[in-house]
Specification:
This protein has about 80 residues and is of the alpha+beta class. It contains four helices and three strands, in the order βααβααβ. The protein has a three-stranded mixed sheet. The chain is elongated, with a radius of gyration of 13 Å.
Length: about 80
């Protein structure tokens, strides 16, 4: 099984529906289907908070922090974390 690490730019691409979102969505779907594993570092979660705070304010930053800290702390998305 292949492993992928989503960096901050990939996470922001997905969240903000930027160019390249299709590639990130495919990786996430492959992880849900158990084809790959995705890792998100705690550093990326912190960067996501900081960038969101700076560019969009505390409310958006806090919402994104809540949404992403669980994914980062579980260290992998896919395999046994399938959502049906």
């Amino acid at each position: 099984m292949k492993n992928y690490i989503l960096d901050t730019s990939a996470i922001l691409t997905f969240i903000e529906n930027e160019a390249g979102v299709e590639d990130v969505e495919k990786l996430l779907l492959d992880a849900v289907e158990g084809k790959i594993q995705i890792f998100i570092s705690v550093i990326s979660t912190i960067e996501l908070y900081y960038i969101s705070l700076r560019e969009q304010g505390k409310k958006t930053a806090s919402n994104r922090w809540s949404s992403n800290k669980t994914a980062a702390s579980t260290t992998r998305y896919g395999e046994n974390n399938r959502r049906d």
